[in-house]
Amino acid sequence: MKCNQCGAELAPGARYCGECWAVVTSPEPAEGTPPGAGMAPPSSPAPTGRLVVEIGPDEGREFRLRGTMRIGRSEDSEITLADAQASRHHAAISPDPDGFTIQDLNSSNGTFVNGKRLDEPRLLKDGDRLRVANTVLAFRWAPTHAAQAPAHPSAQAPAHPSAQAPATPPVTPPAADYDMLPTTEVAWQTPPAVVPETPSPQDTRPRKGIS
User: Domain segments of the chain: what residues?
Assistant: First the structure.
């Protein structure tokens, strides 16, 4: 079976092309074949990665990873370095269902990942540091199929909040009912009339002088 994009031979059951990293599609079903028969299950999106040169003559350069890419000083390497100490074809980085793997291509100085020399292909993780001769490259990987982490649930109010007791209205004393107050009837007494005193006859007689 061949890749529909670049025509490269594909391994049986391959989901991606090892050369152009195109998604392998199933051939058109023959006439009379029921829809969906022989179709492979949907494959996960191809991973995307890149290498960023942090130390070396190519510091600041960035390489997007597509398919299998060789790293070396030769111009026919997909990732060409201006490092005289690197081998012509120093290492190769290849796509993997879980990301990308790197392997040394029998280089003279070896290939190192996070300070450890490679003895066999190794699956890379985001943030790994690769050293090829005098060049250090940072591996960056953003898997498109990674599930997003759920957001932290925010504090929610209870489904049935307890009913708050209604505010007690202020107690207002009842208005005084003056009709109910005890009353004391005070009899109004008219003061007695003052009768002028009438002098007696004796007092009205002229008095004689005393000689």
Answer: 48-142
